[in-house]
Amino acid sequence: MDWTIPVIILQLIFLEGVLSIDNAAVLGTMVSHLPDKNPVPWPKSLQKIGDALHPLLGNERTAALRVGLLGAYVGRGAMLFAASMVSHNPWIKVVGAAYLIRLAFDNLGEAEENEDDPHTHPIVSVNFWSIVVTIELTDLIFSLDNVVAAVALSSKLWVVICGVFIGILLMRFAAGWFSYLVDKEPVLKKAAYLLILNIGAELLITEFAHIEINSWLRFGISIGTIALALLYAHSKLLQKLNPVLLWLAQGFANVNELVDWALVPFLALGKLAWSWISPLFARRAKQTVID
User: Fold this and answer.
1) Domain ranges, ordered by start, for the chain
2) Which of 14, 83, 142, 211 is in Cβ range 3.0-4.6 Å of 151 for a Cys bridge?
3) Sequence-ordered list of residues with C-beta below 8 angstroms from that of 180, at least 6 positions apart, any chain
């Protein structure tokens, strides 16, 4: 009997687990903001569909994990087919890294004293569907290196898909466990966004400094970040570093303020373009109804 394929699938599951420890922590933190007793807030036009899906999806926190699982399968499958394109287009990783760093700064930044607008957009302030979209985008970017590493293990796509998809399922179970752990250890919320910052920085270092960060080093950085966060939460000695950490958090908010300022003309152009395009869509839709 040829044991090559089962061994490769086990390697892929293990690889996915090692590379996704940060993904599970981040996903668990994001869904922890959602109540576990409220049903999914569907739009009125889709409420009947939502009622029919409720037994399958469950309440908000559980539904976000299950919708995230489906999105992860679709997104990771697409990434596997596009692995060659990803490896030959470094700008994809740069854009992804910029998104992750911005997301981290949004959730780690703090307003300076007497400042009304900290220029941060924490995920806790958004709704269920916004969190789901953020989860999917973050998972997709996290998977950039995972996919390239997975494809390197086997040339048979179905073997790669099998191993990766089982790994995703295990990771989603870990995320559910982590979401409840966050309730007991709130410091893990900050740790999760530090993991996001780590991944963004690692993608940029790999692309611009050409320093290869292997799976074990990435795993060690993730575990070390979580361990240090827990140690800080329970150590009065380390908590004396609060002024330094606050200074860093205010720095993140200041960087965000600069980015917000730089984006003003582009957002204005986008709104102007939409004001021209939206009437055309409305007119076409009206014409379709009449016909």
Assistant:
1) 4-290
2) 83
3) 32
